[in-house]
Amino acid sequence: MFRSLLLMLLWSPAVMAMGPVCKSLFYVPQRVGIVDAYSSGRHVAPALNKYGIETVHVQSEKEIADPYFASTFDPSNFKTNVINSIGDIVGLVRRLIREKVELIIPGAESGVLLADELAHGVGTRGNPIETSSARRNKFDMSERLRSLGIDSVKQIKSDNWERTRIWIENHGKWPIVLKPVQGMGGNGNHVANNMKEAERAFKKLIGFRDSEGRILTEVLVQEFLGNLTYDSEYVVNTVSFMGIHVVTDVWRYHKYKVEGEGVIYSWDELLPSRGELQEKLIAYNHKVLDALEFRNGASHMEIMMTERGPILIENNARLSGASGARLTELTIGKSAVDWLVESIVGTAGFINRAKHRYKLKKEGLIVFIRTPEPGTMDSKLFDKVKSLSSFAEWVPYHKDGERVEKTVDSDTLVAEILLTNKDQEQLHRDLAQILKIQEEKGFLQY
Ligand SMILES: Nc1ncnc2c1ncn2[C@@H]1O[C@H](COP(=O)(O)OP(=O)(O)O)[C@@H](O)[C@H]1O
Ligand SMILES: [Mg+2]
């Protein structure tokens, strides 16, 4: 009913005349709408503004529920902020047409579905609306891969513990993973080692309010992929234009399992773009992007290397978060943000430039500082790492004097430290030094 109303509206001659539909696919938009320009998505508007392209912000929720997202929003980068206060998609589409928006992209994870709907409604370049949920919903994305004959994670999605328990018994292997179907930032992720832990996690997740403010009614339960040292996860970040994918950065993640909770970041290692492993990951990444009909925009894909080969953890239809883009600026000289902006302003030569594979001028990694118990932030305690020869920058997650809770997810991390060095051995010696200080609880006042 709603969709047919939308279709009627969009096909009405008046709206067609007003709208920026039917342009050449290579058009350079003069005004771009960014849905939820938070986290790393906040860097896109200022970069577009430098090219004289105006930006309009679309806020997917009346109030920005996620405190981290709210803290990264800068309305001054935008001509206007259009707030989706009552979920009136038709109204939003009309407003964006009136604003002469010619391209709509998501900034952060919370904007992915709405950006698809609005791009479809306004008629701009984007990704097919029919497969939208396979680019956001973790259950749908892996089921879509399976239906196309691509190996994917074994899983069940359920609101019923008894049904879930039977699935887990039949699966017969521990550990297993329980998580929200549309989670982000590691919120609500659990690794369970036995049925008691699984039941507790399941019951905790039902009714759990996720970071976008949704109350969960179903839990996603998956086989555990990878190894128990939590260092077999990789990331391939890409920017796509008309189905051509450019690899902007490839990473190996080293994670850490918090007792009774999920896994969190420990350190992320930037990899060269070429190598036997990279070729496998990139080939798999492109196969998955095509299966998910991901044709335009930035993507951040998490892949587990397993005995069966690479298997998708999740694809995020947006830029990678944290300081990844910054580290690539320091080590490669060009980030996914730069590539995304190029895919918007330099469309004509993009396909040719897309043959490019990046080269590392320096090695680089990001260390995520965690705490096993609550403490108080004191930035002076980080002075001791600033003299390390690989030290580049650091990003505190809290203000001085603030209480920091035990780290259980991305929101409760203490800080990020960016290291770069031409000498890989020195880089790893400096990493070891930081991990030792962390082990000795040297980064917070306790
Ligand atoms: N099925 C799985 N097997 C092994 N590890 C998993 C699995 N699902 C999630 N994880 C781990 O938990 C992390 C967070 O899960 P993910 O689904 O990416 O949630 P989020 O949206 O919060 O990032 C992953 O990056 C991975 O390290
Ligand atoms: Mg993830």
Strand order of the largest sheet: 13-12-9-10-11-14-18-16
What's the helix count?
15
Oligomer: single chain
In CATH, what is the class of the largest domain? Alpha Beta
What count of domains describes the coordinates?
3
What's the number of extended β-strand segments? Answer: 19
| Nearest-integer average pLDDT | 92
CATH superfamily of the largest domain: ATP-grasp fold, B domain
Can you walk through the features of this model?
The chain has three domains: 2-126, Rossmann fold; 154-223, Dna Ligase, domain 1; 233-445, 2-Layer Sandwich (D-amino Acid Aminotransferase, Chain A, domain 1), CATH 3.30.470. It contains 15 helices and 19 strands. It has helices at residues 2-11, 13-18, 44-50, 67-71, 89-98, 112-122, 138-147, 161-171, 195-205, 276-291, 324-331, 336-345, 347-353, 383-386, 424-439, and strands at residues 31-35, 54-59, 80-83, 103-106, 155-158, 176-179, 190-192, 219-223, 233-241, 244-257, 263-271, 297-306, 309-316, 363-369, 375-377, 391-396, 403-404, 415-421, 444-445. An eight-stranded antiparallel sheet has the order 13-12-9-10-11-14-18-16, with helices on both faces. The longest helix is centred in the middle third of the chain and has 16 residues, at 276-291. Residues 138, 153, 177, 179, 183-187, 189, 222, 224-226, 233, 255, 262-263, 302, 304, 313-314 line the site of adenosine-5'-diphosphate (ADP).
